[in-house]
Design brief:
Length: 378
């Protein structure tokens, strides 16, 4: 601030306040399960009125469905993974048969008998081993979280906690919006800024709907699940999930319909990435260039290196010459018709399920947006 003249500061504030009388439209983009809807839930917690008791109760069927789907998916892959896993206890066999025969989906009445069988199966070490190999098949992120809380979730008077709601997985198949206001820091002129944040479905089949809301978007928050490096897509099990995210980011970076929008990348699921790397997850197996990567910044451990590698990939994509980019076609409008001038891409490391982390990250996100808007007015 020190070297800025008073006059210039006044002008900044004047322009900024003018601009911020209008609503800022943010769009969450990213592949399936990258964490977009979780960010919407955090905005409701941080900037609206959180979840009422009746809203919490409404989530019970979804949470129980998460349990049902998780245990079914784990059990049905015990024999399909290579080499297969065996049950540790003979008594678990009846429980496994019971759960598999019910299938993975609603409708089901969640009886005591059902929860007892899930409990027996989940305690079996062979089932746990299959769970630990879940990158070899498709399993929702919250499987362990909910299965470990079975004794609470099964109760008739169970009311979900805010954390349960943040972990609950429901695939998005429509476009939704949350409206909220944020206090503007004094350094940017104070007052309130109004935001509309849009959520879309990220799986391949959902992306054709994206174009409907591209117009008028000022900022794109692009989510990448950093922990996806050892997973394949639900939609196509031959494609690496993290690679799909990088390709999709590239498509969006050069997309003619959103070329004026600011781009902010969230390298999300840092908690899961950290755990995977600490447990021996090997990035080189999936991204061979990782072995030659030497970070510019100093890093203390392998997790830090993995984080920085992903940031570096984003910078690499942003620095590419557009002439060399081909239409990847992951979203409509991604074919290059003209050169798009270089854009600033802000990157944040996030844990979407952690409200404190998201509060801190959004303090800087709002500043990124405010700065961009001040700059674009000159
Ligand atoms: N541990 C952990 N789980 C996360 C994080 N972010 C999201 N999740 C979980 O990941 C799952 C998927 O998150 P969603 O927010 O539904 O993902 P999405 O991007 O909206 O997915 P689509 O609607 O299919 O496009 C949910 O169960 C979340 O609780 C994170 O940072 N850490
Ligand atoms: Mg979603």
């Amino acid at each position: 601030m020190g070297c800025k003249s008073k006059k210039k500061e006044d002008k900044d504030h004047e322009l900024y306040s003018k601009k911020f009388m209008g609503t800022q439209k943010l769009l969450l983009l990213g592949t399936g399960e990258s964490g977009k809807s979780t960010i919407i839930k955090q905005m409701k917690i941080l900037h609206v009125n959180g979840f009422s008791e009746s809203e919490k109760k409404e989530k019970i069927p979804n949470i129980r469905q998460n349990i049902r789907e998780s245990i079914y998916d784990i059990l049905s892959h015990m024999n399909t993974i290579n080499p297969p896993e065996q049950l540790e206890k003979e008594e678990s066999k009846t429980a496994v048969e019971y759960i598999l025969q019910l299938g993975p989906k609603e409708p089901i009445e969640y009886t005591d008998e059902y929860f007892d069988q899930v409990d027996i199966a989940w305690r079996d070490e062979g089932v746990k081993k299959t769970f630990r190999r879940s990158n070899e098949y498709q399993l929702i992120d919250s499987a362990e979280y909910f299965l470990d809380r079975l004794h609470i979730i099964r109760k008739t008077d169970y009311i979900p906690t805010v954390e349960d709601i943040l972990y609950c997985r429901v695939k998005t198949v429509s476009i939704s919006k949350i409206e909220f206001e944020v206090q503007v820091p004094k350094s940017f002129g104070g007052g309130m800024a109004e935001f509309w944040m849009y959520d879309v479905g990220g799986q391949r089949g959902e992306r054709k709907k994206w174009i409907k809301i591209f117009s008028g978007i000022e900022t794109i928050l692009f989510l990448i699940a950093a922990s996806d490096f050892d997973l394949t897509l639900r939609e196509d099990n031959k494609i690496n999930r993290l690679q799909e995210s990088f390709n999709l980011f590239e498509d969006i970076y050069w997309n003619q319909f959103v070329r004026d929008a600011g781009l902010i990348v969230f390298l999300n699921k840092q908690d899961v990435l950290k755990r995977k790397i600490q447990q021996g997850g090997n990035m080189t197996e999936y991204f061979p260039e990782y072995s030659d990567y030497v970070p510019k910044e100093s890093c203390e451990n392998e997790y830090d290196k993995a984080k920085l590698f992903m940031k570096h990939k984003i910078e690499e994509i942003s620095a590419k010459n557009p002439v060399t980019i081909e239409n990847i076609g992951l979203v409509p409008g991604s074919n290059i018709l003209e050169t798009v001038s270089a854009r600033t891409v802000y990157t944040h490391f996030t844990i979407a399920t952690d409200t404190r982390n998201i509060r801190t990250v959004f303090d800087s996100v709002h500043q990124n947006i405010l700065q961009k808007n001040i700059r674009s007015l000159y």
